[in-house]
Specification:
Blueprint lengths: L12 H6 L4 E6 L8 E6 L1 E3 L7 E7 L5 H6 L2 E13 L1 H4 L12 E16 L2 H15 L22 E16 L6 H14 L4 H12 L7
Length: 217
């Protein structure tokens, strides 16, 4: 992923963004002669002060990627959202014909390089599940997972837990913050008027990154 200086995160921008984006794709190197595995999954990110943090997740035991993870625990979790297509006319400078504007994409992306640690102990798997349910279902309503206890105890053998130790982070917030002021204003107006499925989030990022703020990390 190419990251230009103007697309780098502001201070703890990627951590704040990741706190509200908890679905991504886990990429695992394939075994010899095989393509890489790419697994969509929900996850919980634990920032763990002083480190890059940790990812908590689980997958079904029959999942074919386990042998590949065991062979090479170096994996990558890719999270991407808040994207929008930006038409060429919005990007044309004032002294340029609108049809000469160059279309582009806006998006936020965080790529977490990780070392995978597999969790097979039933009690530890139950703990992982309870952390995940607590994150995704804070209102409660489900029984806690516990070894030998109904209703989830008997299901623990059907999953494997994942703790992904984050070793490197690459983050990009591509929202045209390097463009001339007139282009930025036209783009903001276009996003607001179009108001598509992802335009509201892209518009908010575009405005936020245009305003004076913390120095870039």
């Amino acid at each position: 992923m190419l990251i230009h200086p103007w697309d780098t995160p502001l201070d703890d921008e990627w951590q704040q963004w990741l706190a509200t984006h908890d679905f991504g794709q886990l990429a695992v190197n394939g075994l010899p002669g095989e393509a890489p595995y790419v697994q969509p999954m929900h996850f919980v990110y634990d920032p763990e002060p002083g480190t890059h943090g940790e990812i908590i997740a689980h997958l079904a035991r029959p999942n074919p990627l386990w042998k590949a993870v065991e062979a090479d625990p170096h994996v990558l979790l890719s999270v991407m959202d808040d994207y929008a297509f930006v038409p060429g006319p919005w990007q044309a400078p004032t002294d340029t014909p609108t049809e000469h504007g160059v279309p582009t994409s806006f998006y936020a992306a965080v790529q977490l390089h990780c070392t995978a640690h597999l969790v097979d102990d039933p009690a530890r798997k139950a703990d992982l599940l309870n952390v995940q349910v607590g994150h995704f279902q804070p209102e409660g309503g489900s029984a806690p997972a516990a070894v030998g206890a109904a209703p989830y105890g008997r299901m623990l053998s059907g999953i494997r837990g994942l703790r992904l130790e984050v070793t490197e982070v690459r983050a990009k917030f591509k929202y045209g913050s390097h463009k001339p002021q007139d282009v930025q204003e036209r783009t903001a107006a276009g996003l607001a008027e179009r108001a598509g499925a992802h335009d509201t989030a892209a518009y908010a990022h575009h405005l936020r990154r245009r305003t004076p703020g913390p120095t870039r990390a």
